[in-house]
Amino acid sequence: MKASVERLRWVLAGGAVLLLVVLAVFLGYGRYRALRTWRDIVRRSGAHITHETDGFTYSQSLKGRTIFTLHAAKGIPHGDGKWSLHDGVLTLYGKTPADFDRIYGADFEYDEKTQIVQALGEVHIDVQAPGALAAGGKTPAANAPKPPATPSDGKSGGNDHIIHVRTSGLSYNRAEGIATTDQEVEFRYAGLQCLAKGAIFNSDESMLHLLADVRLTGDIRGEPMTVHAVKADLNRESDTVALVQPVARTQGRTARAASALLHLRKDGSISQAEADGNVAFDEGTRHLTAPHLEATFNTASLPQTTKLTGGVVLWDDDAQQPMHGKANEVDTSFNALGAPTNIVATGAAQVALSDHKGSGPALSREMRGDRIVATLVPIGHKTVSRLSQVVATGSAMARGDSPVAPSAGHPQTQEIKSTMITADNLRADLEPGASQKAELRKVFGTGHARLQQDAPLGEQQTSTSDTIDIAFASQPTKSGGMATGITSAVQNGHVVIHSVPALRAGAAKPEPPSDASANNAVYDGATSKLTLTGSAHYTQGDTQLTAATIVANQTTGDADAQGNVLATLLGAETSATAQATHVTADHAHLVQASQAADFYGNEAHPARLWQGASQVEAATLQFDQKQKTLAARPASAGGLVHAVFANANPSQAKGKTASSGEGQVVRVASPAMDYSDIAREATFSGGVHIDGATGQARSQKAVVFLNPAVSSKAAPGAAKPAGPTNLLGGSVEKVVLSEAVRIDQPGRAGTGEQLVYTTADSSYILTGTPAKPPHIADVKQGNVTGATLLFRSDDSTIIVTGAPPGPAQKHGRVRTETEVRQ
Fold first, then answer.
1. Quick one: CA torsion of 265, 268, 274, 275, rounded to 10 degrees?
2. Where do the TM regions start and end (predicted)?
């Protein structure tokens, strides 16, 4: 379009010079005076000519400089003020001998009464182009060529400084100052040709009107170019050219509008241009429309700025790469070579494109904003540019697709992941890829930033933050093309993340969603790991996790926490007595697939688990939420696991009388603890030390049995709901100690191989072996031995069942009861 407008300007400027000459000199008063002077000269010479004169030449000078030269092969007076000239040639000179124009034709008629000059047949005019056209604005040299003795052949092919005009039926009314023709007008210059049907020149208004069917044809860089308009008007005083319904075509491009107005400089170059009504640009399958266009040009008539207003629409009908965009206004800036450097789209600006190449799925891109600014970098010295940066402000949004590996269930299908970024402001940086096309490399967003990624099989991740910084890299698609995928994402300030995992193969239902929050978040696309820092919080299924740093694998759902770890285990139970389980540790590791959670500390600062008043402390706590087990281990061989079991006392809270076991606390220390929530058993081994309100006990092994934690809403006999809500919670049913048991109570000590403590009645059953029967030493009662010793902590009664076996009687049936006096 640039080249077409430039050539059109040349032709119209030349046309203006042409008709001005016709008006002011050839058809004006100067010509009339020349004819009278020629006739007077003939009369004074004494010759008598009644019909015709041959070989007439006349020239006129002013201050020693020739102004014009008139030559006619024949001049014929017809009387009554009418004249005919045959083969007339008028040469008009400018300020230098090299500055001249030439007008010539076969026959002319002039009527002195009506002051009308009529050209009979064709009229040819050779006009030197303005300086800006002929010599780039330079003044012609002193030794420039003199006017030829004979007129041009009308082609001006040998002189690129000449504009040639041809028309016929030209009529000039000297009284009105108007020259008209209804015949075809032809302009020729530098290989370009312009045709129009009819023309009017008004000398008073300095207006040239090309009346209809204005056509410009020629070559641009070896490619054909055409410009067509319904009509054209050139104003010499305002140096403007108005076109009605112009259509320009060159190099596969078409530009059109209902009307256009060109503003010319004094040297003939275009300074500004305006187009109104259905402004459209087409190139192949690409189209651009707008109601109004304003443009500015440099002295070389190359565009410097363009402004499209009133609702701009851009689209591409390409079947493989369709595109659509729109905005209320679009402003474009260009460099000195006419290459675009900056594009600003304002007012509901948006652009979307798709890639349907190959057999894979379509990949799409989209960007929106109240204002979109695109920065372009010219490629070399060409007039084409490469997109380098796009900035969207005001409710900005960018969305794009990227390929992912085919799923196991659909190995032949190329899956895609959709990524959408929104923010108050977005900046996208692009760099040339392998094909030198602009490829997305970074996106930076500020203010209410939001990132959403949707993957096949229902996987989705949504995150919000104050700022977001995303890096992209090219990825090959199955069809052989390239698409961009996220390599890293950095979010800062009030980060909140929600993730929905994909449905795993063979799984009846998807894994539970996860939620995270932190001051900062960093995502690594190569490992799919999300690192949260600063008040980091992470929720995965029934587990809530806070720490200084949390690293979550977005593919597997696994998580690692470091520094001041606090975990909360929530179950599915809804009973009034259900309580959450809490864990503190130095660091932790969670595995989503196996639902395992490991918490780590050290001997000085062990990991700690508690629910209500019950708790466990150890260097390592290992949960298996599928099997509902807990393993506690020390950090070294000499370390211990500490557990506290506190029986709740709900009956007292309701005004009921508490049972003897309610409100008791059992403390256990051991090198190892293994708990099964299904069996409701905590097993301690390797040497156990139990400390309770009624004394202390030691053994090599101990098992703490907990009462079932049944929901208050569950029907009697119903299965216990899944979940670790009451892990280690609930009341202690009994404690069983075995192997080298020793019990110490105030004023009483006992030994045996097994001790069973029942919390319901605070009773103890101490047993032994034939070799080592149970034995109790009481400060008041003395020593008591039997097969089974039964006593309670709340009285002084000891029940002995069976005498200790001896050599003559292995199975005694003696039952002895001893009453201890107070």
1. 170
2. 12-32
Q: Is 507 exposed, middle or buried (0-12, 13-18, 19+ CB in 10 A)?
A: exposed
- Which one, of 305, 315, 310, 401, lies nearest residue 350 by Cα? 315
Q: Which residues of 570-593 are buried (b: 16+ CB within 10 A; e: fewer)?
A: bbebeeebbbbbbbbbbbbbbbbe
For 392, phi then psi, to 5°, come to -115, 130
**d(C-alpha 503, C-alpha 478), whole Å:** 24
Residues spanned by CATH 2.60.450.10 within the chain?
1-136+147-219+226-239, 573-710+721-818
Distance CA 418, CA 397 (A): 13
Find the DSSP H helices in 22-96: 29-44
User: What pLDDT, on the 0 to 100 scale, is given for residue 17?
Assistant: 33
* d(C-alpha 259, C-alpha 582), whole Å: 77
**DSSP string covering 360-413, please?**
S--EEEEEEEEEEEEEEEE-TTSS-EEEEEEEEEEEEEEEEEEEEPPPTT-TTS
pLDDT band for position 578 (cuts 50, 70, 90): low
DSSP one-letter string for 481-519: -EEEEEEEEEEEEEEEEEEEPPPPTT-SSPPPPEEEEEE
What SS3 class is residue 131? helix
The residue among 595 and 52 whose pLDDT is bigger is 595
Distance between CA atoms of residues 134 and 145, nearest Å: 14
Q: Is 234 within 8 Å of 16 (Cβ atoms)?
A: yes
In sequence order, which residues have a C-beta less than 8 Å from that of residue 711 and are 6 or more positions away? Answer: 573, 574, 575, 578, 720, 721
Cα 786 off chain centre by: 84
Give the Å distances, CA to CA, from 349 to 370, 439, 448, 739: 6, 21, 19, 81
pLDDT digits (tens, 9 = 90+) for 170-205: 787 767 767 788 999 887 766 778 899 998 877 566
CA distances from 506 to 410, 503, 530, 593 (A): 14, 8, 26, 13
Residue whose C-alpha is closest to residue 802's, from 791, 790, 813, 818: 813
CA–CA separation, 530 vs 490, rounded Å?
Answer: 10
Region for residue 413 given its phi and psi (left: phi exceeds 0; alpha: psi -120 to 50; beta: otherwise)? beta
| 480: three-class secondary structure by DSSP | coil
Per residue in 372-402, is it b (16+ CB within 10 Å) or e — as a string? bbbbbebeeeebebebbbbbbbbbbbbbbbb
What are the tokens at 129?
């182009």
**Rounded alpha-carbon distances, angstroms, from residue 389 to 343, 373, 443:** 10, 8, 10
Residue 601 CB partners (closer than 8 Å, separation 6+): 585, 586, 607, 608, 618, 619, 620, 635
How many other C-beta atoms are found inside a 10 Å radius of the C-beta of residue 676? 14
Whether 44 and 19 have beta carbons less than 8 Å apart is answered as: no
Please classify residue 294 by burial: count the beta carbons closer than 10 Å to its beta carbon, then call 0-12 exposed, 13-18 middle and 19+ buried: middle
Phi, psi angles (nearest 5°) of residue 808: -90, -20
Mean pLDDT of 732-745: 92
Q: In CATH, what is the architecture of 573-710+721-818?
A: Sandwich (2.60)
CATH topology of domain 1-136+147-219+226-239: lipopolysaccharide transport protein A fold (2.60.450)
Q: Two tokens at 276? A: 């109104």
Which residues on adjacent β-strands are paired with residue 467?
446, 492
- Token pair of 691 as six digits: 């400390």
* Rounded Cα distance, 536 and 379, in Å: 47
Burial class (CB in 10 A: 0-12, 13-18, 19+), 339: buried
